[in-house]
Design goal:
Layout: E1 5-14, E2 22-23, E3 28-30, E4 45-51, E5 63-68, E6 81-82, E7 99-104, E8 107-110, E9 120-127, E10 144-146, E11 158-159, E12 167-172, H1 186-189, E13 203-208, E14 218-223
Parallel strand pairs: 6-11
Antiparallel strand pairs: 1-9, 1-10, 2-9, 3-8, 4-5, 5-7, 10-12, 12-13, 13-14
Length: about 220
């Protein structure tokens, strides 16, 4: 658990190339890191990216990027214990990974814009990670980075193939609305998965390897 928590909020301002905290927009990647492609052949859509604040343990200053196929949608199914080698390509319960989540340590390469989602800037707002409303007691249920997960169905603990326990990095709120399609690209016309939400609109908990053994060593735990 990390005591430093930031609520992630989407604003009305359009994102520009070089912005680090965005829905859609231009991914900022490590040199040599390609834009993720789904096994179905479709280039994945950038749902969001953010620069992890400097006081978030294990991942300070890293660039978190979350992609999903624009034409395939499903939840990431439940796993347990130690994950298999290269689980980011071969998740233990899904046929394949139609998502790609990256933690980039030296993200400086600005790519071309995402052709699917209308780009918006995100803001990160420091918060106390406590919800004291009756029936909701516990960590915040918001879209957030850092802090602790608000588990819907009980805590899950996973171990990376490298032997390191995965730790909580980010939480995507249930049924979070990532905005609108772009209307100026042919790719957006073929995108049919956005209405399903990210990983079917589940509450998604991103558990990442603090040893940074691989940039995609992040498992998206889904609950509802």
């Amino acid at each position: 658990m990390d005591a430093h928590t930031y609520i992630i909020r989407a604003g009305a301002d359009p994102a520009a190339a070089g912005d680090l905290d965005t829905i859609g927009g231009s991914p900022v990647l490590d040199a040599g890191q390609p834009w993720p492609v789904c096994p179905c052949g479709a280039r994945m859509a950038l749902y969001f990216q953010l620069r992890v604040p400097a006081d978030v343990t294990h991942f300070a200053g890293d660039q978190l990027l979350v992609f999903q196929c624009p034409v395939e949608s499903d939840a990431c199914f439940q796993a347990s214990g130690q994950l298999p080698p290269e689980f980011w390509d071969h998740p233990p319960a899904n046929d394949h990974a139609h998502w790609r989540i990256l933690v980039q340590r030296n993200a400086t390469e600005i790519t071309g814009p995402d052709p699917y989602l209308r780009p918006h800037r995100l803001t990160l707002e420091r918060a106390v990670d406590i919800d004291d409303h009756p029936g909701y007691e516990g960590p915040l249920q918001n879209f957030k980075v850092g802090g602790a997960p608000h588990w819907f169905q009980g805590a899950e603990h996973l171990r990376c193939p490298c032997g390191t326990d995965l730790v909580f990095l980010c939480q995507v709120a249930e049924n979070y609305d990532f905005g609108e399609f772009r209307h100026d690209t042919p790719q957006a016309d073929a995108a049919i998965a956005f209405d399903d939400g990210f990983l079917l609109g589940n509450m998604v908990y991103l558990l990442a390897c603090p040893a940074h053994c691989h940039p995609a060593a992040v498992y998206p735990v889904c609950q509802n």
